[in-house]
Amino acid sequence: MRAGQLPAAGARGPDWASVDIAVPRPARHLPGVSMAGFRQRAPVPMDIAMVAHPSVTLLFDLSDGDGLVYDARGRQERGSAVVGLLPGELRAGGRVGACLQIRLQPAVAAAVLGVSTELSGTVVPLADVWGPDAGRAEDRLRAVESWDARFAIAGELLRGRADSRPPVDPEVAHSWRRTLADRGRVRVDGLAGEVGWSRKRLSARFRSQLGITPKRAARLVRFDHAAHLLAAGHPAARVAVESGYVDQSHLHREVRDFAGLTPAGVASAPWLAIDDVAWPTPARPSSGHRFEGRP
Questions:
Q1: Rounded Cα gap, residues 149 and 195, in angstroms
Q2: Is residue 68 within 8 Å of residue 40, measured between CB atoms?
Q3: Can you tell me whether residue 63 is helix, strand or coil?
Q4: Is residue 124 within 8 Å of residue 83, measured between CB atoms?
Q5: Could you tell me which residue ranges the HTH araC/xylS-type domain spans (predicted)?
């Protein structure tokens, strides 16, 4: 387990200094999977906005008592949940004692969950996706106290579920990797040419397997890059240029679309304040154009 130094509390955010954050050792890394464990030493009510991210998220609520409460588009739920791509304005809070958050790249989520398309734009209880397995998974995670043990159990659960489902098309997986590597600054025509498909076929297969079009995926990845630059304190005008937006107004429109906030609001978002601790940046995937397809 690795932990980092937490930032001081922000004026509108929770007191992150009272939250312990754990991440798996590098040796436990699973391709397309990121995990972080959060434990609040003295649970107090929290209410924070979660900023859109290019992943499907599993939230395992390991708290005692009321625990995690989340609100998506006016619908409130409690407990462990699955956050699909582009969930809209999402707030999470409650008296959260402990929580395991797992980010799955869409191709991995398709294999682990089997319902990526149906999850796009939604937040649903984990039990609605995994059925009785959700409760059993929670019980196993609660039965151990160390985050190392919890990460090991979570990895075992994910591998077991992925092994029982067919992977997405290699052409789709390659197109997603390229989109991430180039921070969303890709063209669908170029991606289609790399994998030897038509634009129409790539868009249809991409959407049917990942629940999002390649164009929308590129916009989401580009927004995520811009959001982190804003959170790091860079001015909006500079962020617009570095992220490939036409101008600052274009950046403003995209931020509003994905987060329901202004660039200034994203810059001060409490959740982004801990990203470098909870989600340390792995080696960036290659942006090369080579595509090998199926063996």
A1: 40
A2: no
A3: coil
A4: no
A5: 170-269
- Alpha-carbon distance of 174 to 274, in angstroms, equals 29
d(CA 147, CA 38): 9
Asked if residue 92 lies in contact with residue 79, where contact means CB atoms within 8 angstroms, the answer is: no
Q: What is the pLDDT of residues 214-235, one digit of tens each?
A: 999 999 999 999 999 998 899 9
Find out whether 205 and 169 touch, Cβ atoms under 8 Å.
yes
pLDDT bucket at 2, cuts 50 / 70 / 90: very low
Alpha-helical (H) ranges within 84-235 are 106-113, 116-119, 126-130, 132-142, 147-163, 170-181, 188-195, 199-210, 214-231
Question: CA quadruple 189, 193, 199, 204: dihedral positive or negative?
Answer: negative
Q: Count CB atoms within 10 A of the CB of residue 20.
A: 14
Mean pLDDT, rounded, for 85-99: 79
